[in-house]
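General statements about sequence and structure are easier to judge against a single worked case. For one protein, we set the task of working out the structure tokens from the amino acid sequence alone. This step matters because it turns folding into a mapping between discrete strings. The amino acid sequence and the backbone structure tokens for this protein are reproduced below.
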Amino acid sequence: MRIVILPTELEVSRFAADIISDVIKKKSRSVLGLATGSSPLATYEILIEKYRKGELSFKHVSTFNLDEYVGLKHNHSQSYRYFMNEHLFQHIDIDIQNINFPECINNDFKECSANYESLITKQGGIDLQLLGLGNNGHIGFNEPTSSLSSKTRIKTLTKKTIESNSRFFDPSEFQPSLAITMGIGTILQSKKILLIVTGDNKKKAVVDMVEGPISAFCPASALQLHNNTVVVVDEAAAANLQLSEYYVHSESMHLNSTSDRIDPKINAN
């Protein structure tokens, strides 16, 4: 697991956008796993700017979103399809036929989940999976105690997650308590994983993920098992990490042995 700590959220987003851009430039028909929420917003804005400048094309890119609420229509302002259209897809040259969501229209959750897994497999797997980190250590909607080998499925959201997301819904609106999400096992099959974390409120989850034991109580800790994961955090989110000196040393060795154009403060493998 490579840990990169940068001073600000903007620098984290720039670093993440450069990693995504490099994947697409090396493989024009890349398969990207994408996330919603506040964490990737600035990264998406930077990717849009790269596209507008002619530096990047999404024409042949395929995408698979991590998750989607159950019970919301496509055009609902809080559906994740709506979020992705607003914050990325309608601003770039991606083919709408190449956009995939783990939606379930017919309420056959088992079949819909299996079909999503099959679609990912048919595309050759996910080249880069983008993630955010929940306050309780969840990734996607894999809440604490989720199986570390789980596949795409329906999950009941915790009260804490529902409360955290309630700020996006009007008090009179229906707020879903179920979501369909890629499983932890699905995420771990990605060729590369990029996780973005910013803010003081995430510092405990960062410690549990990076320096804690691998445990279903912190689903993101399963990323320790992946051999190509980059965790990019700002200083606020990294404040409680205990092994900072080691990460600094590891990053200096990394920079001395590679031609990285980015100069992150801390990096560990």
Remarks:
- The helical segments are 9-26, 41-52, 80-87, 109-122, 159-165, 184-188, 203-210, 244-257.
- The first strand starts at residue 2 and ends at 6.
- Confidence is low (pLDDT under 50) at residues 259-269.
- The beta strands are 2-6, 31-34, 62-65, 67-69, 99-100, 128-131, 153-156, 178-181, 193-197, 229-234.
